[in-house]
Amino acid sequence: DKVDSHYIVSHLDPQMSDKGSIKHIKEVKILNYFQDFLIELEDNQEDGGKDQLTVPKVLQWFTGQSHRHLLLSERQRFKITVCFERMPKHSLCFPLVSACSHTVTFPTAHQCTYEFKVNLATAITCGKEFHMI
């Protein structure tokens, strides 16, 4: 079973602001942008080269592994913590990843649909990633 957008989204554990606040509304938008990003990757997936961005590569960038957990108990415990941070002194903000703790921090400043997709794709393709050793 290959990793799909549903697998990643179902294991997200977002650390959200208070419901109804402006921050919360922005965070919900960012999560929606992320889900759209993953679905778009699935829809455009071809049997392209190794440099093609795929949903499993997104999971590998987040966690260091590009496959589903084999054991049901591991799958149930698995979560990706999603944090949100305003980085106002930056004009270009990229997501930050801690693969060991399975944490991603999305910037909340300077984000619209197009910027989000471009910044996330750039961070994944140009950032360091884990490979099989």
Structure write-up:
By secondary structure, this protein is α/β, with parallel strands linked by helices. It has a single domain, classed as 2-Layer Sandwich (Hect, E3 ligase catalytic fold). Helices cover 43% and strands 13% of the residues. It has a 4-stranded mixed sheet with strand order 1-2-4-3. The radius of gyration is 15 Å and the shape is globular. 18% of the residues are buried. The mean pLDDT is 86.
Label this structure with key terms.
133 residues, alpha/beta, Hect, E3 ligase catalytic fold, 43% helix, HECT domain-containing protein
Question: What's the topology here?
Answer:
Elements: H1 5-10, E1 12-14, H2 22-43, H3 55-63, H4 72-77, E2 80-85, E3 96-98, E4 103-107, H5 113-126
Parallel strand pairs: 1-2, 2-4
Antiparallel strand pairs: 3-4
Protein name: HECT domain-containing protein
Organism: Nothobranchius korthausae
